[in-house]
Please model this.
Amino acid sequence: MELAEFRAGLDAWLDEHADGLAPPSRETTLVEDMAHLAVVKRHTFDAGWMRWGWPERVGGLGGSPLLRAYLGEALTLRGLVEPGIYSMAEVLVPTMLDFAPAALAAEMVPLLLRGDETWCQGFSEPGTGSNLASLSCRAVRDGDGWRVTGQKVWTSLAQFAQRCVLLARTGTPESAHRGITALFVDMDTPGITVRPIGAMHGAEEFCEVFFDGVLVPGERTLGQEGQGWAVAMDLLPYERSTALWHRAAFLQRRLADLVAVAAPDSLDPDDVGAATELLYAFRARSRATQYRLAGGDRLGPETSVDKVLLATAEQAIFDLALDGVAAGIVGGDDTTSSKWRSQYLYSRAATIYGGTAEIQRNIIARRVLDLGAEA
Ligand SMILES: Cc1cc2nc3c(=O)[nH]c(=O)nc-3n(C[C@H](O)[C@H](O)[C@H](O)COP(=O)(O)OP(=O)(O)OC[C@H]3O[C@@H](n4cnc5c(N)ncnc54)[C@H](O)[C@@H]3O)c2cc1C
Model:
């Protein structure tokens, strides 16, 4: 299917099903957002829309990845899904396509796309974020499988997740990036404990996850033993670029809302112009990335530019909100105010998740601009 045909068909379908897809209320908790996301995914999958842009071997209907990018944009622009929780498939599925055994990908990916399951990404640890190569959660051989012991942290949505894409150390402690293996772990396996962490924006979005001698079958290895770094380097460019495309639609909606409701004379038109420019800079870059992917390019370190632009635009827009709806953000206790406050606070995370702003700039300097190694 071509993009124009997909857009027209999807828009008409969304108009027709607007009532059935609408969130239950304006003020929803994360638990309700997750439940509603599952409903939207199920309807869009069963009607075919969610399957376009993914290969047939994992339950898709084929076609360009631009189709699924437009789906995310349309759902976000209409306020039918929350952008952060929607993006997990865009982060994890491309890597499943590249590294999971074919039968595993064919069995599992449709469950995520249809909203029957939630998955999480177990990379960061208490002592390991930017320096991922130093991770210490350990997997040792046990028969044909692995036994995993250690801790992950900041694992988004782990309390809802049925599966985890986990990085574990299988080499010596000194093996750095060479001694890491990626595993696909069932979250109901005995020995896994998940503890949600309250975040300042008011939701328990991420968790600590503890692994105590957790048995993972050998066929759940993603790629080969010791190939975990390649898995991570494959996944992170999606997390830093294409998975953020529909976030621009959310930001566009919120910028328009802000201009509409801001207190008189509270917004400096120059600041509004600058924030709009930043948002469109991200959109232009992100669109080019989507087209590169659709054209068969492999995404790499250049996607750090997308991530920097997204974080810069998001924080500029919510800095403006702090001017335009100041009273609400600082002290309002109505639904609208708490939404602005929560989104303002969450915008601070944009320079942290998916790799911090400093790390993105290091990558751009060294791997894109070839400005030399760290001293
Ligand atoms: C909302 C949110 C969701 C997240 N979800 C997940 C998830 O689902 N799964 C997951 O695995 N992780 C997740 N994370 C964790 C995220 O990937 C890490 O927080 C991030 O990579 C930074 O690591 P850190 O927190 O350990 O900070 P650190 O690496 O300790 O960095 C601390 C500070 O030092 C700076 N710094 C560190 N090294 C350098 C350097 N070499 N040069 C310059 N500056 C440097 C950093 O930029 C930062 O300002 C999430 C984080 C957030 C905020």
Notes: The pocket of flavin-adenine dinucleotide is lined by residues 120-124, 129-130, 154-156, 206, 349, 352-353, 355-356, 358-359, 362 (CB under 6 Å). The mean pLDDT is 96.
